[in-house]
Amino acid sequence: LTEDDTCTVNTDEDTAVNIPTPTILTSSVVKKNTRSSGKQKIKCSECDYETFSKGNLCHHRRTHTGEKPFECSECNFKAIHKNSLIIHMRTHTGEKPFECSKCDYKAARKSTLNDHLRTHTGEKPFQCTKCNYKTSHKNRMSVHVRTHTGEKRFECSVCNYKAVRKSSVIVHMRNHTGEKPFECSDCNYTAAIKSTLINHMQTHTGEKPFECSECEYKATRKRHLMYHMQTHTGEKPFECSVCDYKAVQKGSLVLHMRTHTGEKPFHCSQCNYTTARKSHLVLHKRIHR
């Protein structure tokens, strides 16, 4: 292969075009191992990728050049591979060709269906190397790993809030917009988070499904039971990095840290009063009534 060689790729009109092959295909990167057919294996000069197909190498090259020739006609999405564009178009058409044989679930991607099928089998093949966490979804593992690395790639556009998950930022933004899309069917209560509404509904039903194994305590929320259990064990896992303070709950440690930092994030809209605790602001506002 020489620098004058060309590789043939298909455009989104399925028309073959010839594109000059760069130095990535020069003879210096051709490995001398062969298949039974006698074809030589071609190696990428930028990384360890190798293939017997010149077309495959042309597609691979785009991961280095950033070229994305396949464009969506509905939005700004661009793709390296035509198949990626086909899958993306289903977000516009709503097409979900992959159906679960166990239930009514449908998916736009085969890989998404494979993930779903594990909800029936209980299989959790992805295991964290740092802790005992297991999951059926590869992308969930990627998100979980960030809890160990501390990486928070999703940022709020209004304040300094950062999150591991994009969905967390979406929920956080409701603090700024005041949006509460989840409504109680029994009263006027509305919530920004679905799980909060589910917890609220238990105030109508009186249901307390989480029971302590040590005493008669019952809770509407699992985390409340977890906190309660620490009254039996004496465990205080949240430690202050400045002093000897320890807490049962993370929220208690967050409040405590403000005694060191002086942070007072809660502001009165009627005067200059600021406080470290939301409950103190609620009490303060009564003087303006």
From TrEMBL:
Keyword Zinc-finger: yes
Family membership: Belongs to the krueppel C2H2-type zinc-finger protein family.
Domain of life (superkingdom): Eukaryota
Cleavable signal peptide: none
An example Gene Ontology CC term for this record: nucleus
Ranges where the C2H2-type domain occurs: 42-69, 70-97, 98-125, 126-153, 154-181, 182-209, 210-237, 238-265, 266-289
GO terms, molecular function: zinc ion binding
Entries under InterPro entries matching the protein: Znf_C2H2_sf (IPR036236), Znf_C2H2_type (IPR013087)
Name of the protein this chain belongs to: Zinc finger protein 845-like
PROSITE patterns associated with the record: ZINC_FINGER_C2H2_2
Keywords: Metal-binding, Repeat, Zinc, Zinc-finger
The keyword rRNA-binding belongs to this UniProt entry's keyword annotation: no
